[in-house]
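Fold this complex.
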Amino acid sequence: MGNGRLPVEVELDAHACLQCGYCNFVCPIQLLDGQGWESYRVRGKMYHLKRYSHPGFLGRIIGDRPKLSGEFVERVYNCTACGYCQIACHAGIRFNDRWEQLKEWFVEKGLGPLERHKALRSRVVAKHNPYDEPHERRGGWIPTEASRSANAEVLFFAGCTASYRQQRIARDTIRVLNAAGVEYDVLGEDEWCCGSPLIRTGQTDVVTNEEDGLVKHNLREFEKRGARAVVTACAGCFMTLSHNYQIYAGKHDFELYHMTQFIDKLITDGRLELRRPLMRRVAYHDPCHIGRHFGIYEEPRRILKAFPDSSYIELPRNRQNAQCCGAGGGFKIQFNDRAERLASLRVEEAVAAGAEVLVSACPFCVTNLSQGAKDAGIDLEVAELVSLVADSVS
Ligand code: SF4
Ligand code: SF4
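Structure:
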């Protein structure tokens, strides 16, 4: 049959799909094309997979069965890994894993990934980051005021975006940790890409390789430092370390925090006090990879409300119903214009709600939302939560 049998769980879920269509109306991709074509929609993709795996009596006799064409593969990669379809699905399909399994299968069968995704793989193999930046400059963001400890309470995993593209976020994290008197260490050149962009695009061999895969390397570095807790700046790194690494390497024995959780804890424990007010109306954009995927909704909001004279605004679409900014899942690298269009829509929502600053808690969201604002000619400040905190405490 065509390219062979689909991964069993994907096939079973394609059959479990009720074709009810609730998923269609939440998927951010439909925001890009009016009501969208069914082939771009979750329901249409599931129907195609069902017919591919079980073409029916006539299909088997005359060989008339759906093909997994290049167009179909392209439709599946039209996905930001936002996790909204999993929340909406009336059949309880675990889409967060299924889309990744399907893309991994595409790569095994030579059907995927898409052209620009292939460049990600070669860059990560050669330089351990997807941005084609020299590996030896990975620690270039580390400021002189970083006071690294050999007996660290936490290890800060900066991630590729904060290490190379949004260095202010990594430096502001150091300001916050210093202000709270936390003993910490950073990995610098010993840190490699967590693997998120490769996992989301199905290119997992580089991530899981037993000898020198990304999982093996990063976990070995954590172990060398005796890490008791790891803190990530990036929502994508958090999801990868907490979910995917456990699939590949089993349960880890360190605590994992996204920076918003850690700052919230520092404030609650009385170790950090926000002293300077924000002076602007702020709204929070939930990054999908800590929001819908992990339910980290209240920690960032508690932080924003802890500023003196806080004037916090809730966006109409928030928490599990937040609109994706368009950056994730390998979508931005392949379909940058479409990703920025989604970001523009989110920025427009923030302006309409009366926000003066749109805050997020992920360097990748901040990058895309800033570009979306610029594209749409909207004068709205996009900020990272840790930077606002750093300005308030130091
Ligand atoms: S994860 Fe998000 S973008 Fe991808 S299919 Fe589901 S709803 Fe659409
Ligand atoms: S909500 Fe779930 S069951 Fe309904 S069409 Fe979408 S994938 Fe199928």
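The chain has a mean pLDDT of 95.
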